[in-house]
Amino acid sequence: MLPSMITLINGICGFIAIGLAAKGPDYYGLAATMIFYAMIADTLDGRVARISKTTSSFGGQLDSMCDEISFGAAPAFLMLNLLLYHHRQLVGSAEMVLGDFFERFIWVAAIVFLSCATIRLARFNVENEEDEASHMSFSGLPTPAAAGVVASLVMFSQHLNSDDAASTEFFKFLYSSILYILPFATMGCGFLMVSRIRYPHLFNQWFRGRKPLNYLYFTVFVVGIIILCGLPLALVLTSSSFALSGPARWFWRKVVTAKRTQKTTDEIQSKQ
Question: What residues are paired with 198 via a beta bridge?
Answer without folding.
Answer: 139
